[in-house]
Amino acid sequence: MKALDETVERVDLRRDLDGLVELEAASFRNPWTCEMLLAELADVAVALAYVVRTTDRQQAGYCSCRLIEDELHLNNLAVHPTQRRCGLGRRLLEHLLHDVFDLGARRVTLEVRASNAAALALYDSLAFVRRGLRRGYYTMPVEDAVILWRSLP
Ligand SMILES: CC(C)(COP(=O)(O)OP(=O)(O)OC[C@H]1O[C@@H](n2cnc3c(N)ncnc32)[C@H](O)[C@@H]1OP(=O)(O)O)[C@@H](O)C(=O)NCCC(=O)NCCS
């Protein structure tokens, strides 16, 4: 299934906060709360977030990250469960990687649960490379994190 008419843009907290809280709750066992999102995204010196909108859902997916010098760290990525496998996650990341290059990013890293086959397949398809494992990095449940890197462009 292909999603039509999607747009990707920087998050506007005044407009998007409630939708991001909903996305978090629908996507993670330990979701970021409203307060956690606000605290992270208020750190405007380094925090960046992008939202993908569709005709069906204003906040169909989002990604938050931190840009420190030339290194981008992806924190959270989520697409609403009703809109997965439509290409939105890929579209969101492609847009983000293009945009952050213009902002000075030259390499990107993230951690992902070792059992998260969907996310790993998405990152593999975008040329991220597995560079290590953090043992027991995640809690509830305890699980290893796969460390991924990608150079830009
Ligand atoms: C991971 C996630 C963001 C993917 O978003 P999405 O919009 O469904 O992904 P896309 O439709 O863009 O898929 C792009 C590619 O990723 C891979 N992929 C996505 N979902 C997959 C799944 N369930 N199983 C296997 N591969 C999958 C495929 O290679 C897919 O390409 P294809 O559809 O041509 O086969 C989404 O599943 C999600 O929000 N999961 C819950 C939160 C999460 O785990 N976030 C990642 C934290 S690091």
Concise description?
Helices cover 31% and strands 35% of the residues. The chain is α+β, with helices and mostly antiparallel strands. The protein has a domain at 7-109: 3-Layer(aba) Sandwich (Aminopeptidase).
User: Which consecutive residue ranges, at least 5 long each, have pLDDT under 50?
Assistant: none
CATH level 1 name of the domain at 7-109: Alpha Beta
Describe the largest sheet: 7 strands, mixed
Shape call: globular
* Strand count: 7
**Helix coverage percent:** 25-40%
The mean pLDDT is 96
Strand numbers in spatial order across the main sheet: 1-2-3-4-5-7-6
Structural topology:
Layout: E1 7-10, H1 13-27, H2 34-41, E2 47-53, E3 61-68, E4 71-79, H3 88-102, E5 107-113, H4 117-125, E6 129-138, E7 143-151
Parallel strand pairs: 4-5
Antiparallel strand pairs: 1-2, 2-3, 3-4, 5-7, 6-7
Helix pairs in contact: 1-2
Coenzyme A binds next to strand 4, helix 3 and helix 4.
Question: What do you see in this structure?
Answer:
The protein has four helices and seven strands, in the order βααβββαβαββ. With 153 residues, it is α+β, with helices and mostly antiparallel strands. A seven-stranded mixed sheet has the order 1-2-3-4-5-7-6. A hairpin with a 2-residue loop joins strand 3 and strand 4. Helix 1 crosses helix 2 (34-41). It is globular, with a radius of gyration of 15 Å. It binds coenzyme A. The site of coenzyme A (COA) has 19 residues, from strand 4, helix 3 and helix 4.
